[in-house]
Amino acid sequence: MAVRTRSELRRIDQAQTVHDKRSFGIAIFTIVVLFFGLVTFMNPIFMKSQMAKESNGVVAERYINQKFDNFAAAIGADRSSNNSTNNLLTVEQTRPIADAMIDYTLGIHLFRAENSSLAGQIRKIILTKIDDNSSMEAKSVQEKLRKNKNGGLYAIITSFGLANATLMANIEIVLLVLSILIIIFVGILGYQQIKRLQEIVSTRRLIHMVAAGGMRAAICMIVIFGLLAFIPTIFDVEGFILNIGYFLEIASGIFLELVIVGVVLFVISTITWQITSAK
After folding, report:
1. 238 φ/ψ angles, rounded to the nearest 5 degrees
2. Keywords for this entry (predicted)?
């Protein structure tokens, strides 16, 4: 009977250990991913630096030119060329528009209820950045916009999809607040779990369990974000709703950076796990 009791206690202890390792894995994964998202995807400074990269700049140029084409048609600008593959704006002209949309959408701000200020910024960019070296079509758009101030702002709002930008800005601020709260909440739970385990297990075993959780978190990061990074290379993502396709193209490089973070975490956790598992 005593042997059976010890066996049952051993099984309970093993089940509790597995549960603790899983809890540490979930906590580490949650904190690392959300913190990474705060300093990258929700950081306008970082995202604008990403737009400066050649690969992402091409995606942003294609996106802004698509919206500019819609705007040209909306205000009845002259289009001598019907070839949609010809970009009306250069990288130097599209980047300030992309930066303005990033500043409007990301970062710490109140809930957005209007987008006329962003439309005004885009209007100013079009009026100042299109010069004598620009295409005839771009200069035609500029001239039409200069003559039609109020109607031009409304055309910018509709053609550039600024209603979606407002929606994304409001979603972003909710996600930002939730991410901070979740990080704090999970951090407190993790701290309480560590304090509880310090009373019943040795420091060595506690570190071993945390390292095991880190390995689990790292594997999940490598698999999940590795798959996300390769989606744009496997599927044609431009047709995705709410411009998610363009986001995935730009975010693929950032997802790969998170995969690297997962690899580093896995190596560190594995080494720590091996050291603390030695008899």
Report:
1. -65, -25
2. Membrane, Transmembrane, Transmembrane helix
